[in-house]
UniProtKB/TrEMBL annotation:
<dbReference type="InterPro" id="IPR013785">
    <property type="entry name" value="Aldolase_TIM"/>
</dbReference>
<dbReference type="Pfam" id="PF00701">
    <property type="entry name" value="DHDPS"/>
</dbReference>
<comment type="similarity">
    <text>Belongs to the DapA family.</text>
</comment>
<feature type="active site" description="Schiff-base intermediate with substrate">
    <location>
        <position position="160"/>
    </location>
</feature>
<keyword id="KW-0456">Lyase</keyword>
<feature type="active site" description="Proton donor/acceptor">
    <location>
        <position position="132"/>
    </location>
</feature>
<feature type="binding site">
    <location>
        <position position="45"/>
    </location>
    <ligand>
        <name>pyruvate</name>
    </ligand>
</feature>
<dbReference type="GO" id="GO:0005829">
    <property type="term" value="C:cytosol"/>
</dbReference>
<protein>
    <submittedName>
        <fullName>4-hydroxy-tetrahydrodipicolinate synthase</fullName>
    </submittedName>
</protein>
<dbReference type="GO" id="GO:0019262">
    <property type="term" value="P:N-acetylneuraminate catabolic process"/>
</dbReference>
<dbReference type="InterPro" id="IPR002220">
    <property type="entry name" value="DapA-like"/>
</dbReference>
<dbReference type="GO" id="GO:0008747">
    <property type="term" value="F:N-acetylneuraminate lyase activity"/>
</dbReference>
<feature type="binding site">
    <location>
        <position position="199"/>
    </location>
    <ligand>
        <name>pyruvate</name>
    </ligand>
</feature>
Length: 265
């Protein structure tokens, strides 16, 4: 499958007891029906790195169940290759179309180890892999040459480019790898060229505005997007919290409860 357009990194709606609310997952997806091109549960906006095993399974399973025919790309944010492979197999059994994977965690991870990480996952898992290029969760960076090496692997179906550097993104799109590149930062949409689409938290609230920006990028739309992100608190460290609060205010989800941070053993 060739991915393009807007793919929404869904928040993870919780009920009052901290369990994933199936009815709210359904409601959230229903509010986006006909406005986005794909669903991405359990990534950073979905607090993927904090979810318990049960919460992760529930939000992915409910998203597949209520997808309304949209492709589901399941986020996996775990420290090691073995953990990612195990969870990816669960995602495949749940019926996802692809898995979204970052690098192994740790500043000491080498570029060769990053390539081997993606090669191992691909050999073990029978669905496409969407590469999540970020640093905040994994604690390391993918160099451009490394990213190009990963793109040469079979089964890489897309890149969520969240480096925060328009120069990096533009260098990636100029490389013409054939792998669709999606911008991951709302405030950079006007500065990047050649992207296949956008994946960002604002899509939970304003998919129409984001689609318009992709179709006809211009400064006044970028200003509106930046203003919306400021108004909704999406540039803060816990952007998913005010995002949930606004979705609750609109009646889309029932609570604004967030997942507690995991306590180290």
């Amino acid at each position: 499958m060739s991915y393009r357009g807007t793919i929404v990194p869904l928040v993870t709606p919780l009920d009052a007891h901290g369990e994933v609310s199936e009815s709210d997952v359904d409601s959230l997806i229903g509010s986006l029906e006909g406005k986005v091109d794909g669903l991405m549960p359990a990534l950073s906006t979905g607090e993927g790195w904090k979810l318990s095993d049960r919460q992760w399974v529930d939000v992915v399973t409910y998203t597949v169940k209520h997808s309304r025919g949209l492709p589901v790309l399941a986020g996996i944010q775990l420290p090691t290759t073995a953990q990612v492979v195990a969870r990816a197999k669960v995602a495949v059994d749940a019926g996802v179309d692809a898995v979204v994977v970052t690098t192994p965690y740790g500043a000491d991870v080498t570029q060769d180890q990053i390539v081997e990480h993606f090669r191992t996952i691909r050999e073990a898992v029978g669905v496409g892999i969407f590469l999540y290029n970020e640093e905040a969760v994994s604690g390391n960076k993918i160099e451009l040459d490394t990213l190009l090496r990963i793109c040469a692997l079979p089964g890489i179906v897309g890149i969520k480019e969240s480096s925060g550097s328009a120069d990096y993104t533009n260098a990636m799109t100029r490389a013409n790898t054939g792998i669709p590149v999606f911008e991951g930062w709302e405030n950079l949409l006007l500065q990047v060229t050649g992207i296949a689409g956008f994946i960002g938290p604002l899509l939970n609230l304003e998919p129409g505005l984001c689609n318009e920006m992709l179709t006809d990028p211009r400064p006044e739309l970028q200003d509106r997007i930046n203003a919306a992100c400021e108004a909704y608190g999406l540039f803060g460290d816990e952007w998913y919290r005010p995002l949930k609060e606004e979705l609750m205010r609109r009646g889309v989800i029932s609570t604004a409860q967030v997942v507690p941070e995991k306590v180290a053993a």
